[in-house]
Amino acid sequence: MAPKSPSGIQVCNHYSGKTLMYCLPLVIGTVHKERDGWIKVTNTSTGESVNWPVVKGKFKALVELQEGSNRINIQGFNELPLELTLIYQLSEIQRYVQPIYIKCCDDPGCFQAPSGVPNSSINAQNRILLGAKLIQTFTAEKLREHGFGEMTFKLGTDENRQPFCHVFTTNLSLKQAHSMDGGQLWNHFAQELISSKEFKDKENCKWYAFMSFTRYNIPDDTEIPQKHQDILKYTKGHTALGGGGLALFGTGNLHTWAETISELVKCFTDTKKIDRNNLMDDSGYRQFYWANYATGLGASLHELGHTFDLAHTPTGIMARGFDDIHKVYTIKGADKVIKTKHECSTKPSSASTDKQPAVDIVFVEKSFQESPLSTTMTVITEHYDGSTSLQSFTENRDGSVTSSKSVSSSLMSLSDSVSTDISAVSSPEKDFPSELPNSTCAADYSDDKVKQVVFRDGKAHWYRSSAILLRFHKWFNPNNPEINHTIPTFESGQLISQNGLRLIELRTVPAGVVVHHWEFLNQNPPKRFTLEKAEIQNLFDDTDEECTVLTEDNFGNILRKKIFLKDLIN
């Protein structure tokens, strides 16, 4: 349970003595009475202190942990301080994500920035490393909302067991790099990294990579571009692509990123506008510095998600939900309370026992237990533009959970926007990576007859099937040499795995957008599942002839297979 304090300061999402496998936990809490002001959060074990805003009695703070025990002190408003102990234990997962900063062989590696803003390779490493920690924390917080505890990926560490950002010097000159498009750059670096002797255990590594040489430059007497596609015309060395073992991103907005956690609130609330005469604006048409930070950080997580085998989804990080990632770490506007409706009940799992705060956090049904009758839950997501989208889950008599196609209108617009996308597969040498989807506006849905849960961090969440896939993914679980690595098979319309099936996902072709999924979270998942023609065809348009089936088993073994709908069993 959360620690209690006579001072009235409460922490809602952690308890004293808790062990974490990541080093930058998000601390969410409240202060007695609806006060505005600041609190001071100190890790007395390291001596680091950072002030964080309090809005109407609510706060969010990040605290850097050292390996082992950390004594955290929270004080403010002349109250008695609240103290709790958090224990950081380095993850035992063998597979990891390595942040890297790529510079050309004839260039010092400075990124583009306004005059007076430090932009050296060291400044870039600090920004990228903090970004990597932030998305590691995001993943832990958002998987917990789905009932899976604080699971997350591991970051690469140095000889001192500290996460770090590696500087990689490519054999490309600056001129060569600027002559290549995004796909060519991704292919080049995928091959160069996999053949490099600078990295050990490359088969266990996914690279979270940023290119130092991104440059935005519009010719003199040229009208300032307004559309994103026009901005890209004047930008060299930029891309946003992910798949296989490489997530690759440009650094056109890296100057808006925080270099230390003490700068985070300032950077995520900076209302200065990008000067499009001199700097790239990649903000989802919002133009503010904070929006460039949010879109850049969130998009980098989106691309990393593709390396974890995630497809585009109707909502969430794998759609355009990454534009809202700043809302996870800030409390601006947190006083807006959205009521949820409960018309039927589904027992939550006991997977996570932490007390959740009443606001500022997403509540999603925590797993699904066996039930004698089918029950339905609907997740309604509010977008930052005011629109909403909806996804329904139905728990069947056999314990499986199916998702509805009630998001079809937003799905169709998303499919149209990514028609050239190919879903990522296994190795960085072979894959064609996935791109970012265009911004979409989902349809407005409401249904008073089913259970409704609202994501309160805007669109910044993991779509349900994405969360399931990550829950059992090999990059999120320690390696067990005794497990069966046999990939599931597809035979005569049946998906088969002796390890037990955990997720079956249907994706459109060629866009690779999730349309439907089944999840199996029971203790004894099924070893066979039949894809029935009538049910599957109802999920697709009449013009669709094929789809991709992704199947994940209990040990994270994944099968992807394209199937023709006409060949399924009646």
Judged by helices, strands and strand pairing, the structural class is alpha+beta
Strand order of the largest sheet: 1-3-6-5-4-7-8-2
Number of helices: 10
Helix content: 10-25%
Mean pLDDT: 82
The proportion of residues in beta strands is 15-25%
Strand tally is 26
| Shape field | globular
User: Major sheet: size, sense and barrel closure?
Assistant: 8 strands, mixed
How far do the termini sit from each other?
51 Å
The poorly predicted ranges are 333-389, 404-431, 439-454
Q: What is Rg? A: 23 Å
Strand-helix topology:
Layout: E1 10-11, E2 18-20, E3 26-30, E4 37-43, E5 48-55, E6 58-62, E7 68-75, E8 82-88, E9 96-103, H1 121-145, E10 166-169, H2 174-178, H3 182-195, E11 205-211, E12 215-216, H4 228-233, E13 235-236, E14 240-243, E15 246-249, H5 264-268, H6 289-307, H7 326-329, E16 375-382, E17 388-395, E18 401-403, H8 408-417, E19 451-455, H9 464-472, E20 489-491, E21 494-496, E22 501-508, E23 514-519, E24 528-530, H10 533-537, E25 546-553, E26 558-564
